[in-house]
Amino acid sequence: MTVNNLDKSEHTAIANMSLKQRSLGKLLKLALAGLTKLNRSRRKKLVKNIGKTILYFAKKTQLRAIKNISNAMPELSIKEATDLAFDAYGNCAYGVAESFWLTEVEPDIFCDEDTLRILQSGQGACIATMHLGCYEAVPLAVAKFAKQSVTLTNIPKFLADSMDFYSGVNITAINKNASNAFSELLKESGSNAYISLHCDLYANQAEVTFFGQETKAPAGIALLAKMSKKPLLLAYAIYQGDGQVQVFFETLYVNPNMTGQEASDQSNKREKVQITEPTVEQIMSNIYQRFEQIIRQYPNQWYWSYNRWKN
User: Fold this and answer.
1) What is residue 173's three-state secondary structure?
2) Which domain holds residue 16?
3) H-helix or E-strand containing 266?
4) 9 to each of 24, 218, 235, how far by Cα in Å?
5) Please, is 123 exposed, middle or buried when counting C-beta atoms within 10 Å of its C-beta (0-12, 13-18, 19+)?
6) pLDDT at 274 over 70
7) pLDDT tens, 101-155?
8) What is the CA radius of gyration of the chain?
9) CA 199 to CA 280: how far, in whole Å?
10) Domain assignment present for 160
11) Count of structural domains within the chain
12) In what helix (H) or strand (E) does residue 138 lie, and over which residues does it extend?
């Protein structure tokens, strides 16, 4: 795993790692060793069943998921919403688990010619993604095109240090809980990195409408794109019925203030360039409109249990 500069508190946390954390790390390593001996089909079935079992006993999480689904899609009956909650939770459990064996994941990648040109340019981009399908498939797919694929991770430090999740697939992972996480992202962007951030969590930063309800969203990816003057893409990963991962990239916004070769490359793409630069909230609103369309298409692959519609 690519290691960024750690502050003193992080070093202290690692040094003071509890016996419980170390034991948990060893237990997880043993479990992963057992899972990786199974073929992907059996592995997926087992992990999905584990996820559904966890949701069965996690009553608050279960009720929140059902409530979110019912509010987002009121046309569903309670039974349909409940079945969808369990199916989605099982799929998401597998989407998370695949982060532990990314070297085995070979996604099929889809995008139009303009977006492909951005991914292959080496000039960097900011990429809004979501908790859908295989969670780390987007930065994994980016790494197929670019030398610098960067993302945030919230994997506990005691696990990330003992198990190498990202470096084997050329992804740089920055601890999202670090006090300097955004400045690290901005620095990476200045080095023409391609930065993928999950943007479908609740955060008190930008007002958006999501499934017809007012809520708030994180604005980091929009701020990053505006400050770095990099193109803004949207990407998402889904599982096919046979377990194959597909990753889709779209161009949302090309900064009108780009200069030099970047501006020349985009001179014939007026439809993607906004004459008036949109605000952060306008950008996030567009992202959430697209997120909603994608989720409606693949509702059983999105994580419904997060508290996204806080009052």
Assistant:
1) strand
2) 8-301
3) none
4) 22, 25, 34
5) middle
6) no
7) 888 899 999 999 999 999 999 999 999 999 999 999 999 999 998 889 999 887 6
8) 20
9) 13
10) yes
11) 1
12) helix 137-145
